[in-house]
Amino acid sequence: MTHHPAYQIIGADRPSRWLVTVDHATNTVPDWVAGGDLGIAPADMARHIAYDVGALGLAQRLAERLDAPLIATDFSRLVIDPNRGEDDPTLVMKLYDGTIIPANRHVDAAEVEHRLARLYRPYHGALADLAGRRPDTVICAMHSFTPCLRGRPPRPWQVGVLYSHRDERLGKPLVAALAAEGLCVGDNEPYSGHLDGDSIDRHALVPGRPNVLIELRNDLIAQADGQIAWADRIAPVLERVLMQSGL
User: Fold this and answer.
1) What is the largest CA-CA distance in the chain?
2) Burial of residue 76 (number of CB atoms within 10 Å: 0-12, 13-18, 19+)
3) What is the predicted pLDDT for the residue at 98?
4) Torsion from C-alpha of 123, 77, 213, 194, nearest 10 degrees
5) What are the tens digits of pLDDT across the range 172-186?
6) What are phi and psi of 100, to 5 degrees?
7) Residue 35 Cα distances to 28, 30, 39, 51, 227, angstroms
8) Could you give the percent of the chain with pLDDT greater than 70?
9) pLDDT (average), residues 50-61
10) Residue 179: its H or E element
Protein backbone atom coordinates (compact mmCIF):
# COMPACT_ATOMS: atom_id res chain seq x y z
CA MET A 1 0.00 0.00 0.00
CA THR A 2 1.19 3.51 -0.86
CA HIS A 3 0.06 6.45 1.27
CA HIS A 4 0.30 10.07 0.19
CA PRO A 5 -1.46 13.07 1.71
CA ALA A 6 -3.65 13.23 -1.40
CA TYR A 7 -4.28 9.55 -2.13
CA GLN A 8 -3.68 5.91 -1.35
CA ILE A 9 -2.82 3.07 -3.72
CA ILE A 10 -3.58 -0.53 -2.86
CA GLY A 11 -2.27 -3.46 -4.87
CA ALA A 12 -0.15 -1.54 -7.37
CA ASP A 13 1.41 -4.81 -8.55
CA ARG A 14 -1.83 -6.70 -9.07
CA PRO A 15 -1.88 -8.08 -12.61
CA SER A 16 -5.42 -7.34 -13.82
CA ARG A 17 -6.18 -5.01 -16.74
CA TRP A 18 -8.73 -3.36 -14.49
CA LEU A 19 -7.85 -0.22 -12.55
CA VAL A 20 -10.37 0.72 -9.88
CA THR A 21 -10.58 4.39 -8.92
CA VAL A 22 -12.44 6.26 -6.16
CA ASP A 23 -12.48 10.03 -6.67
CA HIS A 24 -14.57 10.80 -3.58
CA ALA A 25 -13.25 8.23 -1.13
CA THR A 26 -12.98 10.12 2.18
CA ASN A 27 -14.26 13.18 4.02
CA THR A 28 -10.79 14.20 5.22
CA VAL A 29 -10.02 17.91 5.50
CA PRO A 30 -6.26 18.55 5.76
CA ASP A 31 -5.24 20.70 8.72
CA TRP A 32 -3.78 23.31 6.38
CA VAL A 33 -7.25 23.93 4.91
CA ALA A 34 -9.16 26.23 7.29
CA GLY A 35 -7.53 24.51 10.24
CA GLY A 36 -9.04 21.18 9.20
CA ASP A 37 -12.63 22.39 9.61
CA LEU A 38 -14.81 23.64 6.74
CA GLY A 39 -17.30 25.11 9.20
CA ILE A 40 -20.17 22.71 8.61
CA ALA A 41 -21.79 20.33 11.08
CA PRO A 42 -20.32 16.84 11.65
CA ALA A 43 -23.60 15.37 10.36
CA ASP A 44 -23.07 17.17 7.04
CA MET A 45 -19.45 16.02 6.84
CA ALA A 46 -20.75 12.47 7.27
CA ARG A 47 -23.13 12.61 4.31
CA HIS A 48 -22.80 12.51 0.55
CA ILE A 49 -21.87 16.17 0.13
CA ALA A 50 -18.45 15.49 1.68
CA TYR A 51 -17.65 12.11 0.11
CA ASP A 52 -19.17 9.04 -1.55
CA VAL A 53 -20.47 7.06 1.40
CA GLY A 54 -19.47 3.38 1.15
CA ALA A 55 -17.63 3.73 -2.15
CA LEU A 56 -14.11 3.14 -0.77
CA GLY A 57 -15.04 -0.04 1.10
CA LEU A 58 -16.88 -1.38 -1.93
CA ALA A 59 -14.02 -0.48 -4.26
CA GLN A 60 -11.44 -2.17 -2.02
CA ARG A 61 -13.40 -5.41 -2.09
CA LEU A 62 -14.12 -5.14 -5.80
CA ALA A 63 -10.43 -4.56 -6.57
CA GLU A 64 -9.54 -7.66 -4.54
CA ARG A 65 -12.00 -9.78 -6.53
CA LEU A 66 -10.73 -8.40 -9.84
CA ASP A 67 -7.09 -8.74 -8.64
CA ALA A 68 -6.74 -5.12 -9.72
CA PRO A 69 -4.93 -2.07 -8.36
CA LEU A 70 -6.95 0.60 -6.61
CA ILE A 71 -6.32 4.32 -6.26
CA ALA A 72 -8.45 6.49 -3.98
CA THR A 73 -8.33 10.11 -2.86
CA ASP A 74 -7.78 11.05 0.76
CA PHE A 75 -9.45 14.47 0.82
CA SER A 76 -13.05 15.60 0.85
CA ARG A 77 -14.72 16.64 -2.37
CA LEU A 78 -15.66 19.84 -0.48
CA VAL A 79 -11.97 20.78 -0.23
CA ILE A 80 -11.57 20.39 -3.99
CA ASP A 81 -13.37 18.04 -6.35
CA PRO A 82 -10.98 15.80 -8.28
CA ASN A 83 -13.81 14.75 -10.60
CA ARG A 84 -13.97 18.20 -12.16
CA GLY A 85 -11.73 19.98 -14.61
CA GLU A 86 -9.42 22.65 -13.21
CA ASP A 87 -11.52 25.38 -14.82
CA ASP A 88 -14.88 23.99 -13.69
CA PRO A 89 -16.89 26.49 -11.60
CA THR A 90 -17.89 23.67 -9.22
CA LEU A 91 -14.28 22.71 -8.48
CA VAL A 92 -14.58 24.24 -5.00
CA MET A 93 -18.20 24.15 -3.88
CA LYS A 94 -19.66 27.00 -1.82
CA LEU A 95 -23.16 25.50 -1.59
CA TYR A 96 -24.02 21.81 -1.93
CA ASP A 97 -27.43 20.19 -1.53
CA GLY A 98 -28.70 23.00 0.67
CA THR A 99 -25.57 23.30 2.85
CA ILE A 100 -23.39 26.41 2.74
CA ILE A 101 -19.65 25.64 3.04
CA PRO A 102 -18.33 28.55 5.16
CA ALA A 103 -14.63 27.86 4.60
CA ASN A 104 -15.15 28.02 0.83
CA ARG A 105 -17.25 31.19 0.65
CA HIS A 106 -14.29 33.53 0.21
CA VAL A 107 -11.75 31.20 -1.37
CA ASP A 108 -9.57 33.12 -3.82
CA ALA A 109 -7.53 32.01 -6.81
CA ALA A 110 -4.38 31.60 -4.70
CA GLU A 111 -6.12 29.23 -2.29
CA VAL A 112 -7.60 27.22 -5.16
CA GLU A 113 -4.14 26.92 -6.68
CA HIS A 114 -2.77 25.76 -3.31
CA ARG A 115 -5.37 22.98 -3.11
CA LEU A 116 -4.75 22.02 -6.73
CA ALA A 117 -1.00 21.75 -6.14
CA ARG A 118 -1.15 19.76 -2.90
CA LEU A 119 -4.13 17.48 -3.51
CA TYR A 120 -5.74 17.49 -6.93
CA ARG A 121 -2.68 17.33 -9.16
CA PRO A 122 -0.78 14.71 -7.11
CA TYR A 123 -3.83 12.44 -7.24
CA HIS A 124 -4.26 12.81 -10.98
CA GLY A 125 -0.54 12.37 -11.55
CA ALA A 126 -0.52 9.11 -9.61
CA LEU A 127 -3.68 7.93 -11.38
CA ALA A 128 -2.10 8.65 -14.77
CA ASP A 129 1.04 6.71 -13.80
CA LEU A 130 -1.00 3.75 -12.57
CA ALA A 131 -3.21 3.73 -15.66
CA GLY A 132 -0.10 3.78 -17.83
CA ARG A 133 1.41 0.70 -16.21
CA ARG A 134 0.18 -1.42 -19.15
CA PRO A 135 -1.18 -0.53 -22.60
CA ASP A 136 -4.54 -2.27 -22.19
CA THR A 137 -5.75 -0.73 -18.90
CA VAL A 138 -9.50 -0.66 -18.34
CA ILE A 139 -10.80 1.89 -15.83
CA CYS A 140 -13.67 1.23 -13.45
CA ALA A 141 -14.54 4.37 -11.47
CA MET A 142 -16.55 3.70 -8.30
CA HIS A 143 -18.95 6.24 -6.83
CA SER A 144 -22.08 6.26 -4.70
CA PHE A 145 -25.19 8.43 -4.73
CA THR A 146 -27.66 9.50 -2.10
CA PRO A 147 -31.16 7.96 -2.19
CA CYS A 148 -32.70 11.43 -2.25
CA LEU A 149 -31.46 14.98 -2.68
CA ARG A 150 -33.17 17.59 -0.52
CA GLY A 151 -36.46 18.65 -2.09
CA ARG A 152 -36.20 16.07 -4.87
CA PRO A 153 -38.07 12.80 -5.46
CA PRO A 154 -36.50 9.55 -4.24
CA ARG A 155 -34.12 7.83 -6.63
CA PRO A 156 -35.28 4.30 -7.43
CA TRP A 157 -32.07 2.84 -8.87
CA GLN A 158 -29.92 0.40 -6.95
CA VAL A 159 -27.00 0.96 -9.28
CA GLY A 160 -26.24 3.48 -11.99
CA VAL A 161 -23.95 2.84 -14.93
CA LEU A 162 -22.47 6.01 -16.39
CA TYR A 163 -20.67 6.29 -19.71
CA SER A 164 -19.94 8.89 -22.34
CA HIS A 165 -21.46 8.98 -25.80
CA ARG A 166 -17.83 9.03 -26.94
CA ASP A 167 -17.24 5.50 -25.61
CA GLU A 168 -20.19 3.18 -24.94
CA ARG A 169 -18.25 -0.07 -25.39
CA LEU A 170 -18.54 -1.23 -21.77
CA GLY A 171 -21.27 0.98 -20.37
CA LYS A 172 -24.18 -0.13 -22.50
CA PRO A 173 -23.54 -3.88 -22.22
CA LEU A 174 -22.98 -3.51 -18.47
CA VAL A 175 -26.39 -1.85 -18.09
CA ALA A 176 -27.98 -4.80 -19.90
CA ALA A 177 -26.00 -7.38 -17.93
CA LEU A 178 -26.87 -5.91 -14.53
CA ALA A 179 -30.53 -5.52 -15.51
CA ALA A 180 -30.53 -9.19 -16.50
CA GLU A 181 -29.49 -9.94 -12.91
CA GLY A 182 -32.79 -8.46 -11.78
CA LEU A 183 -31.37 -5.13 -10.58
CA CYS A 184 -32.93 -1.70 -10.93
CA VAL A 185 -30.26 -0.07 -13.10
CA GLY A 186 -29.92 3.59 -14.05
CA ASP A 187 -28.73 4.02 -17.64
CA ASN A 188 -26.68 7.23 -17.28
CA GLU A 189 -28.71 7.92 -14.12
CA PRO A 190 -28.72 9.60 -11.65
CA TYR A 191 -26.15 11.67 -13.55
CA SER A 192 -24.97 12.04 -17.10
CA GLY A 193 -21.89 10.01 -17.89
CA HIS A 194 -20.07 12.76 -19.75
CA LEU A 195 -18.43 15.85 -18.32
CA ASP A 196 -15.51 17.49 -20.06
CA GLY A 197 -12.44 17.50 -17.84
CA ASP A 198 -13.68 14.92 -15.33
CA SER A 199 -11.61 11.90 -14.32
CA ILE A 200 -13.00 9.55 -16.96
CA ASP A 201 -12.57 12.17 -19.66
CA ARG A 202 -8.99 12.80 -18.61
CA HIS A 203 -7.76 9.26 -17.96
CA ALA A 204 -9.96 7.14 -20.23
CA LEU A 205 -11.66 9.06 -23.04
CA VAL A 206 -8.69 11.20 -24.08
CA PRO A 207 -6.17 8.30 -24.13
CA GLY A 208 -8.79 5.89 -25.54
CA ARG A 209 -9.01 3.44 -22.64
CA PRO A 210 -12.14 1.30 -22.17
CA ASN A 211 -14.02 2.53 -19.13
CA VAL A 212 -17.14 2.51 -17.03
CA LEU A 213 -18.33 4.48 -14.02
CA ILE A 214 -20.51 2.66 -11.50
CA GLU A 215 -22.68 4.45 -8.92
CA LEU A 216 -24.19 2.45 -6.04
CA ARG A 217 -27.01 3.88 -3.95
CA ASN A 218 -25.24 4.61 -0.70
CA ASP A 219 -27.81 3.13 1.67
CA LEU A 220 -27.00 -0.25 0.09
CA ILE A 221 -23.25 -0.03 0.77
CA ALA A 222 -22.98 2.06 3.94
CA GLN A 223 -21.96 -1.03 5.94
CA ALA A 224 -19.31 -3.67 5.31
CA ASP A 225 -21.78 -6.49 4.67
CA GLY A 226 -23.40 -4.52 1.85
CA GLN A 227 -20.03 -3.65 0.36
CA ILE A 228 -19.00 -7.31 0.34
CA ALA A 229 -22.30 -8.45 -1.17
CA TRP A 230 -22.24 -5.88 -3.94
CA ALA A 231 -18.59 -6.49 -4.79
CA ASP A 232 -19.34 -10.20 -5.07
CA ARG A 233 -22.28 -9.41 -7.33
CA ILE A 234 -20.61 -6.86 -9.60
CA ALA A 235 -17.12 -8.36 -10.10
CA PRO A 236 -18.13 -11.39 -12.19
CA VAL A 237 -20.45 -9.27 -14.32
CA LEU A 238 -17.65 -6.81 -15.04
CA GLU A 239 -15.29 -9.61 -16.02
CA ARG A 240 -17.89 -11.24 -18.24
CA VAL A 241 -18.82 -8.01 -20.01
CA LEU A 242 -15.17 -7.17 -20.65
CA MET A 243 -14.46 -10.65 -22.02
CA GLN A 244 -17.52 -10.56 -24.28
CA SER A 245 -16.65 -7.09 -25.54
CA GLY A 246 -13.50 -8.33 -27.23
CA LEU A 247 -11.63 -5.22 -26.17
Assistant:
1) 51
2) buried
3) 83
4) -100
5) 999 999 999 999 999
6) -75, 140
7) 12, 8, 10, 19, 32
8) 99
9) 98
10) helix 171-180
